[in-house]
Design brief:
Layout lengths: L4 H15 L9 E10 L10 E5 L3 E4 L5 E8 L1 E8 L6 E8 L5 E2 L2 E3 L9 H6 L13 E5 H5 L8 H4 L6 E2 L14 E2 L7 E5 L2 E2 L4 E2 L10 E2 L6 E7 L13 E7 L8 E6 L3 E11 L2 E10 L1 H7 L4 E17 L2 E16 L7 H8 L3 E17 L2 E19 L10 E22 L2 E23 L2 E2 L5 E3 L2 E24 L5 E12 L13 E11 L2 E12 L3 H4 L16 E15 L2 E18 L21 E21 L2 E15 L5 E3 L6 E12 L2 E10 L3 E2 L4 H11 L12 E2 L3 E13 L4 E9 L11 E4 L25 E4 L7 E9 L1
Parallel strand pairs: 1-7, 1-8, 12-17
Antiparallel strand pairs: 1-4, 2-3, 2-5, 5-6, 9-16, 10-11, 12-13, 14-15, 16-17, 18-19, 18-46, 19-20, 20-21, 21-22, 22-23, 23-24, 24-25, 25-26, 26-29, 27-28, 29-30, 30-31, 31-32, 32-33, 33-34, 34-35, 35-36, 36-37, 36-38, 38-39, 39-42, 40-41, 42-43, 43-46, 44-45
Length: 821
């Protein structure tokens, strides 16, 4: 077991401080404030009733659609908004503190049932679905994110409790990385929007071309809620195959300056907000990690080191015009160190891991103009990513003869998006377009394997190095339209249909817009007051990553210009049961069929069967000949805060298979077959709260090493060579993790202190990992052992091969506080 004594002593101090705090909390109150809008038209709604359940406190919105609830006793409540002609809205687990006013902007949906059916309206309070996306959609509130056990305020980790969401990378890294796997699809099939502006990078140490990484960038203090759609995507979203994440940020407090400081065993972060001018509010934050010090203390070899920054301003130019600006960025440095408890073999492998230096940012501005029966959105943004990786055999940095990997690359995206949204009677419609200027440059070298010859001097396996340099710039563009209507008596049936097409100026068929026509249709039928039957069918396209499009051979030719847009057809049907205003059950079946998936020309392997790591995905010649399929069934249960209890349970059984050059379906790198998660929280009162989260995933497939080729080429590459004739034929053991969190909030007159203890993998469960290939080292680590006692042969023929596995049970304890002022 890792040493935990340094963390137990602060825990005693935390507990003692909390036990002595009851007197300080007497009669403390807080504020909830915000606006209420019509979701379809974005018009502010006066006269809306806003009630804090359990506090006997309520109000109605004024002429500007604003509400303010002052003098609310500190604690956790459910907030309900209701208005004639609209579905009721429930915002559960709203935490009221004395330190910060809770700024909560609400959007109401026009009622789809006749007035007077009170029970129908009440039960719809928990419903997340929209007319365009009636199924495969979930929403998390800010408190569900903040108090998520093991989440460590990381949104990318929190969403892994939702159905169909697999976390982590391949090869047993599920407890470490944030590669979000949705229904068996790759991490780069997801798109992320922050207040309507696309944000390509949301994780530190992103794998270029794949979108994953071990730690999220977004500051949870900014987030009002997160909506995840795993199918039935609106036509306004481009380049999506598996999911759309919509992160909605709150506005800064318009009344006074406030903020918070968060200090824990992993990071320090500060947030400040308030009025910037009479009609402008702001949010700003900075965060510094010191995970490297924590991991050194508990003897974990990884050393992540990062900064991130974020801001938002909101300016109300007129009653109908609002301008929002936002930005986020990160600076990342990643190294590995040799732990104190290590063997010579493990030490050699660890020293051979890559070092990573990255930085990225996204800045953007959006304008929202209210129109008759609708609104106009205009969004302009820029994203830039700079990526530097170096890997040397045995960590011999600077010795170019030992270099295994070099990456110097950058990506820029300048994007303009315009959409018009209208609603009139039973009709809703939207249309618009987007244009995006892409820039990509890269200098890349990878030593894959060295030449292997038999005793007769014949080449058994040729030398394989990849090196190229590229610089490209091209335009992406798209158009979309969507229309929705309610039908039948009582509007029991809602139909929505959309059409989108996309093109670009780089690929050979990029201007053939008919090839990327992507129709989609969804339907929702109210079987009874508490039951909804939902279905959707859609075709979606994604352009291959810039790492693929920018790849060039050594002669400088862009060899992947013939690449096609990756296609995915979705077929989904589901049943939703809403037995009460705070309880929701869903059951869905899904089938996704892929076409034109990239296949490695060198190895004949689908990129979906290779997975991803810390380097880059796609720096090679590919053909758009791969196919794929994922299918399964999902169950989801959610109980919003009721009698101090909230809970979430999800179960997913699925298959994910892709084909390469030979056309045979093989389990993908994400084919863990079964996912389960459960989240339970209980609020004891007096500021105490406890949470438990359990996650389970079936064993991921992996490919064994080709022992002969690995032994012959190891001295040149520093790693084993996979046997693709046995692609993904082996499986790791199952992944399990239990996380625990304990919070204690102490409220004074104008400040709040939140003390917390968070334990990831609290039961010290040993989770599987893919083995690493190496040669056995001498006890003093001065060289390799040999089978015959003679010096090691260049082809490794007298080496002693070893497969190393990571069988340590790691617990990551975090103790800290959040101070609100």
């Amino acid at each position: 077991m890792r040493p935990l004594l340094p963390f137990l002593r602060p825990a005693v101090v935390v507990a003692a401080a909390a036990l002595s705090s009851y007197a300080a909390e007497a009669q403390t109150t807080g504020i909830i404030t915000g606006t209420v809008r019509d979701r379809r038209t974005q018009e502010l709604l006066p006269g809306v009733s806003v009630v804090v359940e359990g506090a006997n406190t309520g109000t109605v919105t004024d002429e500007q659609g604003r509400y303010r609830l002052a003098g609310v006793p500190t604690g956790s409540y459910n907030l309900r908004a209701s208005f004639v002609g609209y579905d009721a809205l429930l915002r559960a687990n709203v935490v009221v503190t004395s330190g910060n006013a809770n700024v909560l902007n609400l959007e109401l949906n026009p009622a789809s049932q006749q007035l007077g059916e009170v029970q129908v309206v009440a039960n719809r309070a928990i419903r997340v679905a929209t007319a365009e996306t009636p199924l495969s959609v979930q929403r998390l509130s800010v408190e569900e994110i903040r108090s998520n056990p093991g989440g460590n305020f990381d949104i990318s980790k929190v969403v892994q409790t939702l159905p169909g969401v697999g976390g982590g990378g391949t090869g047993g890294t599920a407890g470490f990385r944030n590669d979000i796997i949705i229904r068996g699809g790759a991490p780069n099939e997801n798109v992320f929007y922050l207040d309507g502006i696309e944000v390509p990078v949301i994780n530190h140490f992103q794998t270029q071309g794949s979108a994953g990484g071990p730690t999220g960038i977004l500051n949870v203090s900014f987030i009002e809620d997160v909506t995840l759609s795993t199918s039935a995507f609106e036509a306004r979203y481009d380049n999506v195959l598996s999911s759309v994440f919509q992160f909605r940020q709150r506005d800064g407090n318009p009344d006074r300056l406030q903020g918070n400081v968060r200090l824990s065993g992993t990071e320090v972060a500060g947030t400040l907000e308030g009025p910037l001018a009479p009609k402008t509010t702001f949010l700003a934050s900075a965060r510094r990690s010191y995970l490297q010090y924590l991991f050194r203390l508990i003897d974990i070899p990884i050393r992540p080191n990062y900064w991130d920054f974020q801001f938002k301003t909101t300016t109300k130019l007129s009653p109908k015009t609002t301008v929002t600006t936002l930005g986020l960025g990160a600076i990342d440095k990643f190294r590995l160190a040799v732990p104190r408890e290590s063997s010579p073999d493990k030490e050699y492998v660890l020293r051979s891991n890559p070092s990573i230096d990255q930085w990225n940012y996204t800045v953007g501005a959006s304008l929202r103009q209210l129109l008759d029966n609708g609104y106009l959105n205009v969004a302009l943004s820029r994203t830039q990513l700079d990526n530097k990786l170096d890997q040397f055999q045995d960590g011999q940095t600077g010795d170019e003869t030992k270099r295994v990997l070099l990456t110097r690359s950058g990506e820029t995206e300048n994007k303009l998006r315009v959409d018009v949204n209208k609603a009139l009677g039973k009709w809703q419609w939207a249309y618009g377009g987007s244009a995006q200027l892409i820039g990509y440059d890269s200098r890349y070298f990878a030593r894959l394997r060295r030449e292997v010859r038999d005793a007769g001097g014949n080449v058994v396996s040729p030398d394989v190095d990849v090196r190229f340099q590229t610089d490209l710039s091209f335009l992406r563009y798209g158009l979309f339209g969507q229309v929705t209507r309610t039908l039948l008596p009582d509007d029991r049936l809602t139909l929505s249909a959309g059409l989108r097409t996309d093109g670009n100026t780089f690929t050979d068929d990029g201007h053939h817009l008919l090839r990327t026509l992507s129709p989609r249709v969804s339907a929702s039928y109210a079987l009874a007051d508490k039951w909804n039957l939902n279905a959707s069918v859609g075709r979606y396209y994604k352009i291959p990553p810039s790492t693929i499009l920018g790849f060039r051979d050594e002669a400088g030719n862009a060899v992947n210009k013939a690449s096609r847009y990756i296609r995915s057809d979705h077929y989904v049907a589901g049943l939703e049961w809403l037995p009460g205003p705070a309880t929701r059950f869903t059951l869905e079946g899904f089938y996704k069929r892929y076409g034109h998936y990239p296949v490695s020309v060198r190895d004949g392997i689908s990129l979906a069967n290779l997975g991803g790591d810390f380097a880059a995905l796609g720096n090679e010649a590919v053909s758009s000949t791969g196919r794929g399929r994922t299918f399964g069934v999902e169950f989801f249960f959610q109980q919003k805060l009721t009698r101090r209890i909230f809970a979430v349970t999800s179960l997913t059984a699925f298959r994910s298979e892709f084909s390469g050059r030979n056309g045979q379906y093989v389990p993908s790198a994400w084919d863990s077959r079964f996912l389960a998660s459960a989240l339970f929280g209980y609020k004891f009162g007096r500021g105490w709260e406890v949470g438990l989260k359990y996650r389970f995933a079936g064993g991921s497939p992996y490919t064994p090493f080709d022992e002969a080729v690995s032994q012959a080429s190891y001295l040149a590459t520093g790693r084993g060579v996979l046997d693709y004739a046995r692609l993904n034929t082996l499986r790791l053991g199952n992944f399990q993790q239990l996380d625990f969190r304990l919070d204690k909030k102490i409220n004074w007159r104008r400040t709040t202190l939140d003390l917390f203890i968070d334990l990831q993998n609290a039961l010290l469960i040993v989770n599987p990992s893919q083995p690493s290939y190496t040669f056995q080292r001498l006890a003093d680590n001065s060289g390799f052992q040999t089978a015959d006692g003679q010096p090691l042969q260049p082809n490794g023929s007298n080496a002693i091969p070893v497969l190393l596995t990571d069988d340590d049970a790691l617990i990551t304890p975090t103790i800290g506080f959040i101070f609100e002022f």
